[in-house]
Amino acid sequence: MTARVFTTRPWHEQVVFCHDEPSGLTAIIGIYSTALGPALGGTRFYPFESEDAALADVLNLSKGMAYKTALAGLPLGGGKAVIIGDPATDKTPELLRAYGRYVQSLGGRYITACDVGTFVADMDIVATECDYVTGRSPERGGAGDSSILTAYGTLRGMRACAEHRWGTSSLRDRTVGISGVGKVGHLLVDDLIEQGAQVVVTDVNERAIERVQREHPEVHVVDDTQTLITSDIDVFAPCALGGALNDDSVPVLRASIVCGAANNQLAHPGVEHDLAARGILYAPDYVVNSGGVIQVADELHGFDFDRAKGVAAKIFDTTKEVLELADAEGVPPATAADRLAERRMAAARTPAAAAS
């Protein structure tokens, strides 16, 4: 078991390269900030083309997690890990246990959880070698699937956007278009139907569409995301892959609000300005989709669903705060969210905050 450790300035506190030859583990752990507390973030298991690509991913994701936990009001920092390999062929209990030993060696500076390519059962295995694991099964003291509170938090953010744009948080009779009705998206459909909204959906997975149609025959289905974004919808909710807001989609988007659960919705810097120029209100994804991290963070205190849901309910207030700050400072909401997160982390680093 070997590791290379270095710091990257002026951003990340620590980056650890992990290699365990017997199990075949090659991983990178990135800790962006521990100003507010231990760095929490999931483990992505993915067949990256190169170590450089994996490093770029872990650096971006760990920074995003720091901003997400800061805006969620959690006493936690941000980190992320990637395991390089194909989870379908390379994932073994031995590899996961070796990974758990690396996380354990950081002494609690980094707390892991599920991400792309890793699941609750995997976290249970990691936890056999490590005390700093969330996203475990209920049988192992964990919260299980975090999709419920991710969808719930996204709905709270959407209602805050509605109040900011239309003067009421009600979504009744508003048309919401959801791109991606998988684990989170189909739960968001449930919540919106309960709110009295009209829902239009699309997904490349036919089984996901069939499930929605079976549970909610009144939901309208369109062929693809391009058709969805050019439809007469009030709210566009990206809930699939990142990059949904790009140079092609933003000019033809007809919604007044964008609020969805997908990560990294802005394809590149500058898209937030394009949205603002068209008068489209954008709820930064890491603000409204933080219900999942709130849920796994609650495991650190012995999971209580009602307590975690109470924290996730505050996503409404945080979204409003971000939108109001954007108006006050004359910047897009994405910029306002970044500034608010950075101010909270900076305040935690001051001597006065450290002494309190």
UniProtKB/TrEMBL annotation:
Q: Does the keyword Glycoprotein apply?
A: no
Where does the source fall among the domains of life?
Bacteria
**What protein family does this chain belong to?**
Belongs to the Glu/Leu/Phe/Val dehydrogenases family.
- The regions listed as transmembrane in this protein's record are none
* The Glutamate/phenylalanine/leucine/valine/L-tryptophan dehydrogenase C-terminal domain, residue ranges: 144-353
Q: Which UniProt key words apply to this protein?
A: NAD, Oxidoreductase
Recorded hits in InterPro entries, A to Z, give: Aminoacid_DH-like_N_sf (IPR046346), Glu/Leu/Phe/Val/Trp_DH (IPR006095), Glu/Leu/Phe/Val/Trp_DH_C (IPR006096), Glu/Leu/Phe/Val/Trp_DH_dimer (IPR006097), Glu/Leu/Phe/Val_DH_AS (IPR033524), Glu/Phe/Leu/Val/Trp_DH_bac/arc (IPR016211), NAD(P)-bd_dom_sf (IPR036291)
Q: What is this protein called?
A: Glu/Leu/Phe/Val dehydrogenase dimerization domain-containing protein
Q: What is the lineage of its organism?
A: Bacteria, Bacillati, Actinomycetota, Actinomycetes, Pseudonocardiales
